[in-house]
Model the fold of this input.
Amino acid sequence: MTKGLRFSKNKNLPEIQNLVAQQEHQSPQTVKIPDSILGVDYGEKFTGLAWAQWGTMVPLEIWPTQEHTFGDKIKALCDSKQVKFIVYGLPLGSDQSENHICQLIRKRAQETFEKTKIPFEFINERFSTQMTLTSDKKARRDDLSAMRILEFFISKITTEKDRKTSL
Done:
């Protein structure tokens, strides 16, 4: 069994909801911070998955990427984990430019949304894979990269909340 990493549960949930709503240009009443989040590190050959639920974050699985079954597999996983939100990593360039993989990720995310109706967001995943590398270059680390994507997302929400309260 994989040991989960801990992150603190934010006690100021309404403030975070307002920040997310501002970011998404939606009214705060329509946005809820999810208590079960799936992180996706989508690649041309492999897809890594990680899951966060109030206070615990764990790497889940690494799948061979198969276009024709991706949405169905994500839907089954979301149903079993009661996922309420999905975060996809986008491998943006240093100048924030997108490459062909980013377009593919956006397409898969939309297809998955059509099957699951689970809201999603993209976050810059640059360096997530490099942060998980070990001396064993053959070992797949896509699930750990997906966990980094979740960490980036949670950090982003926390940082935005902190920035707003310090003004």
The first strand starts at residue 5 and ends at 6. The two ends are 43 Å apart (CA to CA). The chain has four helices and six strands. Confidence is low (pLDDT under 50) at residues 1-32.
